[in-house]
């Protein structure tokens, strides 16, 4: 196989995100080459202001690929796109695609696309975000026409006094599984693990064995599914979770 003849996927990620590239590479396997551009570092500003800034500088950050030929790109930052309503998010992606000359999709729009393909109308959210941002996520999905049956928060840590620390990049597989087993999941609902920075593949692999008929979605999994639809790639090289999702959407 000629390595450099493979489809090229660009991925835009926050600067501190340690999860997106490893998960994308694991999901799409050797059938696609993945390249990244990172949002700027934003010292000294709050989370909301940082997410607003990401939306402002997204065209420039995509432009950092320069003259490299890309077949498609994914914006792997769900949180910033929750601040846009679903229609605004869709319109922004269309504008970016027209400007770039190749398809550009947000992880949020990729999730909506896979929900449509699967016929999913109900979600339970598993969120590593601070409560206000988790609520913003919930409102985004409801405005998109989905019913949210539950919201399960997964903090990265809990202090002895019961205070919860939220950081998607620090959430462990054990924390995800422990929270789900403590609180349970509603029957007959798809589960969406939101956010591109929370590592989920190990937890999803275990849950897929335990609940083989439940639809399991993540921001990165849906984005990889969309990318393969957009640019192709060998199915035999992909992660089992992606093959499972593609079978369900066939």
TrEMBL record:
InterPro entries, A to Z: Iso_Racemase_Enz_sf, MaiA/AMDase
Keyword Coiled coil on entry: no
Molecular function terms from GO: isomerase activity
Record's keyword annotation contains Repeat: no
Keywords of this entry: Isomerase
Entries under PANTHER family matching the protein: BLR3294 PROTEIN
Name the record gives this protein: Maleate cis-trans isomerase
Organism: Streptomyces rishiriensis
